[in-house]
Amino acid sequence: MALPLVELLCDKPTHWDSTYIMLNCLRILQQAINHWIDLPAQCTIVHHKLSPINWQVLQDLKVILEALHHTQQCMSGETSPLLGNTILAFEGLIQRWKLVADHVPHCAPLVDIGLTWAAKLSYPVCQT
Fold first, then answer.
1. Which of 10, 22, 37, 54 has the fewest CB atoms within 10 Å distance of its CB?
2. Is residue 60 within 8 Å of 107, Cβ to Cβ?
């Protein structure tokens, strides 16, 4: 089985995008992980094997986090982000999340939570 080379990352609570990156690595290695856990030597942990629905949930989370990751990457590419660019990036994030909710309807409840928080964050900006 040919596997891509991926770097293991340490999860950092202050770096939410490490979760996104780890989900990407996990999906890339899904076949190898399933093969390894099915080996007879892993009989004591086989009950931890992710079901297809669990893998789908992880994929859905990756899709939702991808919009945040894209926005963060756009902003981190600038040496000194300007407020105007920040607002545009934030609006872009909201639009991407709305597209996710429209195209992946079962993700809409999770996206709605993010949109609710985004509305709370944008309300003070609209008031100034």
1. 10
2. yes
Taking Cα atoms as reference points, which of 103, 101, 92 lies closest to residue 69?
Answer: 92
What single DSSP character describes residue 50?
P
Q: Which tens digit of pLDDT belongs to each residue from 69-93?
A: 888 887 776 666 666 678 888 889 9
- Residue spans of the domains in the chain: they are 17-127
The first and second tokens of residue 68, run together, are: 């945040």
Contacts of residue 26, Cβ cutoff 8 Å, sequence gap at least 6? 33, 58
Cβ atoms of residues 97 and 103 within 8 Å = no
CA-to-CA dists, residue 106 to 3, 60, 75, 84, 86, angstroms: 31, 9, 29, 33, 29
Q: How many CA atoms lie within 13 A of 76 on its CB side?
A: 7
Q: Rounded to the nearest 10 degrees, what angle do helices 83-103 and 52-76 cross at?
A: 160
Q: Which amino acid is at 32?
A: A
